Fold:
Amino acid sequence: DDPGALPEEAARTLRERLTAPSPGLVLVEGHPGCGAGGAIAAIDSEDPLALGLDRFDATRRVAVRPGDLGQSGPTVARIVLRAIEEALGEDLGARKDDLGALMGPEGALALALADLKASGKRALLGIDGLHHGDADYRGERITVREVYEALAGTEVCVVATMVPGGLERPLFDHRVAVPTSERPESDEVRDWV
Structure:
């Protein structure tokens, strides 16, 4: 996706949400081809949409697609764990992340989130296609949606894209609606046809 495909009004709203004192969970909703994926594409070191990404100590992106590894809840939890390690200046992989000890109140992710909060640092995660994250991947016990919801109220801000109505009662702190484009991006639409 091209960051420039995100309409300017949606980019301005996203910029406002990410520069808020507590951005939290930012849900970007848009139909295929409208450029919503540009919000996730913009989460890179160049900061092409001037989102103020330098206020985050680590950033990561993941695309959630049916049948792909990005649809794995444990994989996304590990991506978050690695981002927290980076934000804290730790060696990547320093924290135990086996499946049995990953989630839960005393799990590796919860402990890392507590350490991140205590440090005053922040991380940013971009999830493209959150509506695909409600299904389990290969019978795993953890879904991407569960990982996303576990990040509510933490120092890990999440920008997630989804199609309108793609999830029943999605959790979010802020919603950015991307208008339907008169000239939709054909690659995005092709994936839906």
